[in-house]
Amino acid sequence: MQRTRLVASILLLAAMAISIWRVETAPQPVPLAPTLTRQTEYCLTCHSELAEISPSHPIETFGCVICHGGERLALDADLAHSSLRGGRNPSDFSVVQESCGGEDCHSGSAAQARDHIPRVLRSIQATYAGAIANMRYTFGAQEDLSARMGIFAIQDPNPTSSSVPGLSAFDPSQETHPSLIAFSQNCLSCHLSSEPLPGKEYARLTGCAACHTPTAGTDLEQPLHRLTTAIPYTQCNTCHNRGNYELRSMHFQARSDQPTNRLDDYYQPIAQFVRCEWTLDCIDCHTRQEAMGDGHIYSSQKEAEYVRCYTCHGTLDELPLTRTISDPNDLALRLAFVNPQFDLQVGDTIIITDRGEPLWNTRRLPDGSYELLAKASGQRFTFRAVKGSACQQSAEQQESSYCHACHAVER
Amino acid sequence: MRPSFFHHLHPPTIPARQARLRYTWGAGGFSVFLLLAVIFSGLLEVFFYVPTPEQAPLSIQSLTFLIPYGGFVRNLHYWSAQLLVLAAGLHLVRVIFTGAYAPPRRFNYLLGIGLFVALLLLDFTGYILRWDQDVQWALVTGTNLLKSIPGIGQWLYALVTGGDRLGAVTLIRFYGWHIFGLMLPAVIIGVWHLFRVRRDGGIAVPPPAQRQDAERINRTELVRREALAALFGAAGLVFLAAFFPAPLAAPIGEPDAAKQAALAPWFFLWVQQMLRWGDPFLFGVLIPVGWLALLALLPYFTPAPSAVELGRWFPPSGRAAQLIFSALAVTVLVFSLWAWLAAA
User: Fold this and answer.
1) Are strands A149-150 and A166-169 parallel, antiparallel or unpaired?
2) Which residue from A92, A299, B265, B337 could staple onto A86, CB 3.0 to 4.6 Å apart?
């Protein structure tokens, strides 16, 4: 009996010692009370090594939960992550409004240029309306090329004369033509809600992070905690230089190689390029409204894209449109602030597009030439306007093919 | 020694043969020990739990992860509560299979059944207090079952949930029932149950003249054994609390939306299984309550075991009760296993 009592006592003491040891050796909770939420969260207990996602989202201000969701008090990984928004990607369009939205964040007013989410949801990259309309028209499912369907249903309360008021969700089960069924099965892998094809060359996330998280060439299994507006062309390539569609069999012909030489490895062999088209990044010329939409729903990429060579270079008769920044709250300054490589100041004169969008990475120099900062690579270029040069191009013929006639590089 | 309250609980001597672990399993004593553990740990939790839908799951997370030893105390509460249901169930098995429900113990048997039901409801209300996604199915289904009762269903639902939908009032009612409305009767019936054991002549044994073994142990020896069992019990409980954390999930978003593919708490898995077969009133209310009534009335309609066969396992004169109980117990076990396998 005495011996049994000793065993029982030792067992109890051992169990208590183990309990105390487990509690005392557990990681010390690391609290963080972000100024935006004022609600203490303990994610940093495990994630202290994670790099801050961007200078625009400082951790002391945002913390983690405001974007990612999750259980802010839980120190058990499964529980803490059980209510994450969009898994590891809170910018996926299924949850983007909750994660990134908000009047002062990315679903505010158009006047304040904080309407990123409503714009991008109507953009051609998100709706894929152009491809769907083209295919449905080609195979007789609709009478013209005007978009009727998108990846998801979406409305525009204020359509323009050139845009469409709304799209219904493209439903492959309602299509009868075999090519359209094949299209829906094989060709819907590069809109902003689709998961990428397997392979490092296609590595991108979905939603905002598809472009703003530079995952190109990385292993998606290793999460990358970064958001940037300095998007390199390689990120665009995860969709825009992956291969081509075989229109007869409606299959995607993936590239077998990973492009290394920008000039020679573009997927359309007949395409022509001038120097700036293969030395700059896509976003150095293409504006936010072109890539992320202007809030209206268009039927094709052609209607969404409008920047031409003349936007920066002008024509024989006209210098490029410019604007001298006088307002310290000018959108251009806000955009430049996010990419601090370019110290744009009040008083600087920048190039603007036909629609008034600022090319904030440009500046007119005192000698009349212009300077451009490549947003992603940080390279600086200077260039001159066409006006006063030996160019003989008429002002009416400004499509890039006319410029390519003389300026395309051999490849 | 001057007599004290303690002497009311322990007789001066008890028969040695019936004081053995292989006879009692110590299940009743363990139940008392676990009840004390569950009350003590629960009292500590009361200082941290915030009974509102928004704060309840967060306060539990805070207790579990941030309050020093809070997780340990919660685990203790959880495990002592689960083991209490198990120990009380085993005690019931022992009582049935040793014929200890026979007169004059029939009323104490009823008290015991009442206590067992109170324990199940305490466990269920405690489970709901988590107010997280894993309890959502049981919360929605359990309260909706009340609605299925003809006539008084709506009234019962409003009584339990505090309105026509689940929300803050529901949670505070479950909280009230858990820490007060069920706890107080459980303690009172528990003490009454213990008191009645001695009142009804102590542990069930044959009349003195018919006992084969006249040996008895005194109360000092009994307490020594109880203390030893409590030591082992405490070690086991602390060990469980250290290594097996009590379950927890993300907070409930929309309380009225029933989550599919969720498991009921383990002690109601058998009801969940029956609910898959159709009519909620029949399978969720009528049959469980019918079985409970059958169980409670066993001593009243089955032949009483003869006095000479008491104090040992499986008295032949108690066969009817043993068979009916076995059938019920096996059915409940099989249905529970079925529900668990179906979910897995």
Assistant:
1) parallel
2) A92
- Give the distance from CA A346 to its chain's centroid: 28
Query: Are A42 and B231 in contact (CB < 8 Å)?
Result: no
Q: Which chain B residue's Cα is nearest to A16?
A: B238
- The reply to whether residue A74 touches residue B68, judged by beta carbons under 8 angstroms, is no
Query: What's the sign of the alpha-carbon dihedral B301, B305, B307, B312?
Result: negative
pLDDT per residue as tens digits for the range A263-277: 777 766 677 888 888
- Tokens representing A300? 């094709």
8 A C-beta contact, residue A147 and residue A298: yes
Angle between helices A178-186 and A129-138 (to 10 degrees): 160
The pair of structure tokens assigned to B4 is 């004290």
Q: ipTM, 2 decimals?
A: 0.85
Residue B290 counted as domain residue: yes
User: Which structural domain range is residue B269 located in?
Assistant: 14-343
Among A226, A250, A274, residue at a domain's last position: A250
Res A267: pLDDT: 64
Q: Coil, helix or strand for A76?
A: coil
Nearest by CB to A8, which of B231, B241, B250? Answer: B231
Helical H segments across A280-354, by residue range: 282-285, 288-292, 301-304, 309-313, 331-338
Instruction: Report the C-alpha gap between A4 and B228 in whole angstroms.
Output: 8
Report helix, strand or coil for B313: coil
- How many separate helices (H) and strands (E) can be counted in chain B? 15, 2
Boundary (domain end) residue, out of A231, A250, A269:
A250
- Residue B196 belongs to some domain of the structure: yes
- Is A259 part of any domain? no
